[in-house]
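sanity check this record:
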Amino acid sequence: MKRFFIIITTITFLMSTDAGVDRRVPLHVKKGLPGPVEKIGDYPFPTNPMNDRGIGYLLQGKIKNAVTNYGGFIDWDNHPAGLWGDYTYLPNVSFLAGVPGQKYTSDFNWSIYESIQLGGDILRQTWTSTDAYSAWFEDGDTNFVSILFEADNDNGKWRPDSIAKMYSIDVVDHYYQWGIDDVNERIFISAKESADPNNSGSKMGLIYPWALRPKLKERTDDFDVYEYGEDKEEWTQDDIYRYYGTNVADSWFTWSEAYTDWQATTKARVNTHNTAVTAGDIFGDTYFSDPGDTYPLLAHSNYSQTWPTRLNIETGEMESFWPGWWAEEYIEDLPSCSGNRKDPDCWQEVPGRFISDTDVYMEFDDRWAHRGNRVNTNDEYEVSGYPMGFKVKAEAHSYGVSYAEDIMFVTVRVRNESGDWYDEEGNFHEGLIMPDGTKLNHGKGFDYQGVTLGFYMDADAVSADIYGNTGVHTNDDDYMEYYDERFEIGDEVLIISMAMIYDYDGNSNGATDLGIVATQLLETPKATREIDLDMDGFPDRYPGEDLKMTDWHWFDWYNR
């Protein structure tokens, strides 16, 4: 049995430098009537993201793929989808990003302050925690904004501060109340009956700021309208809030292909590619397109006519430019270089040098995530996905050389653009503008904690032949393995963490000579502490090492 690999080379999460604003302090209502620049729709509305979509083709190697710029790198609606040899293997490969909605009280230590009983039965108990207080105000920030009770299925009981937040522990008179005791530096909560916040089964949690958002008012054709209060100004204290919970952005589990969480970044058709050159113009003579195919092409490194253009001030003419990044070169003499090839300070981009035989560049973000939420007849979300303000820049790479022809590389850079920010050179940038012309948290954005980045991979060995015919499609006998190993070669420590899927008996409805689908993460965010992945009592990752693949979750598609 032969093999091919889909290798995700790098995942980099960039925390934007804020624009001199505290992103997590409580909001205050402005005095008087807001001026016209403070109203909903302060900023230009983003254009329809469907107009910014494009497609790219990676055809240099033995593995061939069509890639798109709305979160689903590979989708079997776009042929070829993981073609290796005579067959395709990948119905979908999508990017995932998620944040938690709350942090369980069981992560902190709590002591009983008061127990109210009647006839021997506990009615309610008040608990206090000093380390929860420390976490609440860690590093001078307000890391949490409220308390959630009876958390269940990403929902729970939450009530506004005007009802649930007590100014003193001595005035607590009911369960589901809480408060902050600054004098004694402690958080206090009143739990129902014998619920113990030290146990996760009590289902109580400290709510993160981004999970408490203005409630939906109504859905319009262009965007969702939220309960922004009497002042009609977004993200102020007179808004009607609700708890939205944990959030994960993806582009596969959606009720409509047009309503994915990730969408092409606004004006991508101008800034990252152009619409003048279509798939049929360049790839019309392949199995995967035709001369009449008018779908716009993403920027391909080996076809400069697919690149976006900009004005050259000196010549007064429009010139095409490569929107992505370049290959890097190892330079031992760089000022901060340690002399180790693993040191990122020893590498420098070389303008004009591409990474592979074909690089395809794309950008997408999650500002349109509300589209994935169905709305019932009461103008309420049936599910509660929301935009986090993440922008993803990615390059997919295709090699024709023999040692890499079985590999598709993807480099991903994720930046938190939920608020206004400065880049590494000190240049100011606006935060992502939402579909209703507002910014998240009034432009302050959020400093997210517990961010999870990853990929959804749906592999069928096999799914179609080179012509797109699905008669060879089977998945009942597909087999899965996860491989993680740490070993040393000389003074170098190497870590392989790889997930594999393949046909168990090597015969898929008559298709033979099949390959193995595998995903590996090469460069990822670094570990900040020792991590025991297999819970055997010994560390698998040490501080400073790439996290690699920390989890591999699977589910039965037919019983999902």
